[in-house]
Amino acid sequence: xxxxxxxxxxxxxxxxxxxxxxxxxxxxxxxxxxxxxxxxxxxxxxxxxxxxxxxxxxxxxxxxxxxxxxxxxxxxxxxxxxxxxxxxxxxxxxxxxxxxxxxxxxxxxxxxxxxxxxxxxxxxxxxxxxxxxxxxxxxxxxxxxxxxxxxxxxxxxxxxxxxxxxxxxxxxxxxxxxxxxxxxxxxxxxxxxxxxxxxxxxxxxxxxxxxxxxxxx
Length: 217
What we know:
Layout lengths: L1 H22 L9 H33 L3 H11 L1 H23 L14 H33 L8 H8 L12 H38 L1
Helix pairs in contact: 1-2, 1-5, 2-3, 2-4, 2-5, 3-5, 4-5
């Protein structure tokens, strides 16, 4: 949960820095400097989100290895969205600046606080991105909090859950039945047991090597 909270903090911080920089930039200074600072800060946010995205994937994969298949599916769905949204945001900002630079060879005269200036459009893009990211991250944190509060046993330890995954066949089905969800659950279960078998095999090989070493000594 600390990773999601850190992501939310970084998103809000980046938005506050952008708004303060644009609105309170000295009038006598170069007008396009806030735009460049906004782009630099967004690039820094992208690198931080990229790193934290890998940390989230590590935690989510740990959930899957421990048998929490439903939680893994939900956390992965929400946890992977911030990186895609930030990547989309920085792409949109790059397109915006490219278009303005193509239309206006010199950006300095158009870097004002008017509605259609590149500065205001870029700030609006980051603001929309921040609102969307905050909403998704809050949903993610709520799900993490509920998961930690319940402390339910792993899904694979439940006979009913495993039976639900394996007892249904994929053939003729009534309209409206979610076959894709069934297939995904079965695939998650198979993947979990495959990983569990690999872990046990490594442990057996380690114990076998240890016993051989003891017998030689």
